[in-house]
Structure formats: structure tokens, C-alpha cells
Amino acid sequence: MFMRIDHVGIACHDLEEKIALFERTFDLTVVAREVNEEQGVKEAMLHIADGEGGGSYIQLLEPLGPDTPVGRFLAKRGEGVHHVAFGVPDVTRALEEIGGKGIRLLDEKPRHGSMGSSIAFLHPKDVAGMLTELVQAPDQRR
Ligand code: V0V
Ligand code: CO
Question: From ligand 1's centre to the CA of 131, what distance in Å?
């Protein structure tokens, strides 16, 4: 079902400061930036490697406000790992399969994600406390 880890999302207060930290510490490069109003985030993707069906990345996330998923996470838990995203060939199909196993879906259908991807989230309480994202690359080229 999963082809690779697409990205690990990190919640942070100050995106620019954390981009600089990851660039100088790990020699990573930002390959995309986006404000995603629907998800309530400003985000940056730092490229790690290329893999089956697309690349793998660190995603740095700054909330657009306190009343957003990442804003509430920061208030409760502080900065840290927010979610793990898996690359799948077909996110609609993966949602059907996983939903059929009784896992609560936070998205019934795919939404717009970073770099033109289609994304959907699974409830962390049903996946060992891990907020899980499914990612379908736009054309297997990411
Ligand atoms: C909240 N909880 C988490 C969590 N966020 N557990 C693990 N990992 C997280 N990231 C726990 C929280 O501690 C509570 O447990 C419980 O879930 C309910 O949380 P809440 O404080 O009521 O917070 P809400 O209202 O934000 O609800 C949490 C969920 C929400 C996960 C349902 O954040 C959500 O729908 N997230 C999906 C969308 C998202 O995260 N978008 C931002 C990334 P206790 O304390 O009651 O035990 S956007 C992105 O990745 C993009 C665009 C991309 O990749 O392209
Ligand atoms: Co993500």
C-alpha cells in the first residue's frame, strides 16, 4: 500500500527560523513553499531523497493562526513532529481500503497538498497516536 515515506511534518512557530536551522544543520534545500489556507498552514518542503513514485521530504509547518490544526498542536504540545505522510499510488483507493478496516478518516475525499499532490489524513487516535497523511504525487514525478 505504501511506496515510501513522502514526508515528516514538523510544527514550528517561526518557519523562516526553522528553515535556516534545517539548512545549516543538515545541508537540506527548500524545493517548495506554499500557503495552504484550507489546512491553515504556511509550509516549506526540504528535499531528502528520490524514491519510488516521488521524493521524500521534511515539511516545516507554521500555523496561519491559533485556531488551526497546527496552531492547536503548538499550544498543547509545543514544537515537534506533527505528522507522518506516506506515498501511495492512489489516495482515493487507499482511503477506501483503510476506512474499510475501521480507521477513522479525517478526509472522506482527497484535498490539495504541497507541490500539487492529493492528500488525506487519518485520525491519530486510531493509528497509535500518529497523525497519518496519505499523499499521491501529481504524476509520479515528485
Ligand atoms: C492533535 N492530536 C494529535 C495531533 N493533533 N495527536 C497526534 N498528532 C497530532 N498532530 C490529538 C490531541 O492531543 C487530542 O488528544 C486529540 O488529538 C484532539 O485534538 P485537538 O486538540 O482537539 O485538536 P484538533 O481539533 O486540531 O483535532 C486534531 C485533528 C486535526 C488531528 C483531528 O488536527 C486534523 O484534522 N488534522 C488534519 C489536518 C492537518 O493536520 N493539517 C495540517 C497539515 P487528547 O489530548 O484529547 O488525548 S497540512 C499538510 O501536511 C499539507 C498541506 C501537506 O502535506 O501538503
Ligand atoms: Co503534510
Answer: 7
